[in-house]
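Following up on my earlier thread - several people asked me to post the actual chain instead of describing it. Fair enough. Here it is, all 205 residues.
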Amino acid sequence: MPDPTETIRGFEIHRGWLSPDAQLRLVDCCRKVIRRAPLVRPMTAWGKAMSVRMTSAGRVGWVIDKGRYRYADRHPETGAVWPPIPPEILAVWRGVSGWLDPPDCCLINWYEAGAKMGLHQDKDEGDFEPPVVSISLGDPARFRMGGVERGGKTESTILHSGDVVVMGGAARLAYHGIDRVMAEGLPNPVTGRGRLNLTLRVVSD
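Reply from S.P.:
Thanks for posting it. Predicted structure:
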């Protein structure tokens, strides 16, 4: 399996880590999760609907509850417990994270054309020693990376389907986001249209 790892501002980007067949298997895993835990479009703390839709798998899922960002053990709309993280997704964590314990949450974000994610930190986990692992599937997207303080210089790169990013060490609390999804041209062979982003996180009680 080719793994031309690139490091930008402490973000480890494993280019093409997932084969085309592996990407399709992960998309199928996501579809099964979504059937049990439907995608929702959360409202931010400022009362604005996010442009991405999301759901989760694992012991807990990330939700926005009355403007508060937190982890919850149940789906915010159905009230059901989250489905388990599929083993195919856990295998990616074992392959790149360097962390012994499994993740507690797999956050699934669905980006349609025009969706984006502003610069933010992943800081609701309670323990910042374990890395965060991010998997890209489908349409390419421009990924922006900053430092641990808001503002200042940033850099960007294009993430393609099958790329896996590890955010650990100095990059664990760095600001990052998606400027735009690049959905031009023919449909992609993985999702057709749109981008799936899977984010694996260890969450402290």
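The helical segments are 20-36, 87-96. That should answer part of your original question.
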